[in-house]
Amino acid sequence: MKRILILILLLSAGLTCQVFAQEGAKPTTRISRDTMLIGDQIEWVIDLSFREGDEFFVEKPDDQPAPGVETISPMTFDTVSQKKGVVNVRGTAILTAFDSGSYFLPPLVTAIGHADGSVDTVIFDSPVMEVTTIPVDTATFKPYDIKGQIRYPLTPKEIFIWVGLALFAAALVFLIIRLVKARRENTSLFGKPVVKDPPHIVALRSLDRIRSQKLWQNDKQKQFYTAVTDTLRLYISERYDISALESTSAEIFDDLKDKGIEQALYAKVQELFETADYVKFAKHNASDLENEEAVPTAIKFVNETYMQQIEADSKEEK
Q1: What share of the chain is helix, strand, coil (3-state, %, to 5)?
Q2: Is residue 180 part of a domain?
């Protein structure tokens, strides 16, 4: 149908056409091999010659030029040679088929336009593409059972990888067990006891750090009193074995009444906690005197209660 439309358009334009008919040898295309196996690929070639300055048009084959034949690569044209005013062009397409048989490729219509306005139309006969299968000798053919999966021996590299993974897994399990055990026994990872500083050293170190931060001098009274009282709560909790961290100020001093603390010191520390509660919960602004005495009062409480403990321990030894 396309070829008929091309010829009609050329004739309707008033162009002269020279059509190669049945007389004499026809222009033909060729394939790169006489036969091919199923699924193989074959080249479909057309050679074309014309004068310099001429233009040509070739009706390219469809994606499926014949039933059962598929185009892998569409036809492309390259100039092969150019001598004495004659241009030789070669077109190549790659085809394949997936069933055996003879396939008749369609003729190719080529129009060559000359400088004087005339047009030569050339119809190329196309070859037959033979597709074959691998013959099977049914007389001597002997079927065999399906073979099982072949197991190749492990290579040294594979063995090294598996051994490395096993060692890594064992080390990881050992490390996890040691971490759990160390946490339960309060020891280091390798079983050495963790040396813990006594409560009064921890408290004094914390109070010294709070004093160096100068919080209340920078209008951070709430953070200042929170840090001081939290330090004392931790010290009281570990020194007297009471739940000072979860108790209110009133509950803490109720528990400290029978601990033998000197009355003036007891009252001074209780006053410090009351001031801290006002600052933290009632938005109270403590005076400079109260701020200046907070850390010294806390340090005095830690030192005197610690010395009280030492004296008690000495009496017990005697």
Answers
A1: 40, 25, 35
A2: no
